[in-house]
Amino acid sequence: CVFLIGSVVVLFISQIVTRALHKLRETFDKIASGNFSERADVQSHDELGMLALGFNSMAEKIQLALQKERDLHMLKTRFISTVSHEFRTPLTSIGLSADLLLSYHSRMSRPERLEQVGKIKQRVADLTVLISDFLDQSSASSLSEVFSPAPVDVSILVGEVTTSMAVLLSAKQMNIEVVCEPGLPVIQGDSRLLLHVVRNLLSNAIKYSPIASTIRCTLRRVDTALELQVSDHGMGIPAKDINNLFTPFFRASNSMGTQGTGLGLSIVKEFVELHGGSVSVQSNPEQGTVFTVLLPLPPAA
Q1: Cα separation of 8 and 10, whole Å?
Q2: Cα–Cα distance for residue pair 40/140, rounded to 1 Å
Q3: Are strands 278-284 and 187-189 parallel, antiparallel or unpaired?
Q4: CB 118: neighbour CB atoms within 10 A?
Q5: Other CB atoms within 10 Å distance of the CB of residue 250
């Protein structure tokens, strides 16, 4: 009788183990066939259950690694596509202007020749900006290793950027109104990166704003942070695009007719976060956009 009961118990346990192993085998096969979201469903708390937990943890890591690889591949594909598209337009324009100068130089008046030279210079400037964006994006991931914070007076930095944009502002008959709260403390930051942040936000405001409009740049203290705001009365950003605005290579759906790579704001976000800060945006199509950067102040400030 005892032998019979023991045999039944052993048979029962072996069936449970067999079913659990069969479930694991099915999960193995599904993952091997490419279904990396599959997980082993073994509820026991014995060695077999521990094996299932370990297997699920391994499958989770594999799935995450594959997703990162897919994202990287997609990013590379978009990078190549963006480079080929964005560089082709200015290069084509440079080629056309050069051909005109070579073929019709003797027939063209001095103003006409200067116009073509001006177009070449402008396209070269466009290419310089594009190359700068790509280089900044490619190096942003390693900047944490060379991040060199030091005391920075952001109001002075803003003044330097606005002064350097005088020619660009004049060409569009625009001006930048800078408003700084008195007595702002300095922050700990990397002036190279902060210069890029301010320059990018202001140049975007100029690029997407109508002729003869005013851009407003304000600096003030908000609790334990320094707030930098850049606001314009430009074309604005559609609500459906806001959440993706800081994604590399993403461009708002209403900006496709304007030169750009979709890298600038993603670089701004990385540089600001490297300082422990944050950047956000509020916008209404055809009414304007406000970018807000918050940079932490030193504890004693």
Answers
A1: 5
A2: 39
A3: unpaired
A4: 11
A5: 16
